[in-house]
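FAQ: What does a ligand-bound record look like?

Like this one, built around FE2/S2 (inorganic) cluster:
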Amino acid sequence: MKSLDELAKIRKEAKNKIDIRDSKGKVRIVVGMATCGISAGARPVLLTLINEVNKRGLKDVVVSQTGCIGVCRLEPIVEVYKSGENKVTYVEMTPEKAKKIILEHIVNGNVIDEYTIGAVQ
Ligand code: FES
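The answer part, i.e. the structure of the complex:
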């Protein structure tokens, strides 16, 4: 029988391992799906991202949606979070651009500068 202290220690160690595993190499792709995003075409962008991730079997990539990102006129907007790197915000997205982002940024590690918010503002 283990003491409560021992159990707490085991639990903490297990949690640390999970945290390390979770944050290492994980990529999160977030699509703005507020009304303006949807009317600008965010839905096919989201579907393309999901399809590309599945097609390529990218295990550590999560595609999710959020509400308002705050820049209606640049919708559809996609944010990419890679652990240890700055967030990259892609704007005026299309399904074709979404495919390129999966290949260039997510798979090959090259940010596509011309699609980023910094390039269009
Ligand atoms: S309502 Fe358009 S970005 Fe928030």
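Follow-up question: can I read anything off the structure? Yes, for example: The CA atoms of residues 76 and 107 lie 22 Å apart.
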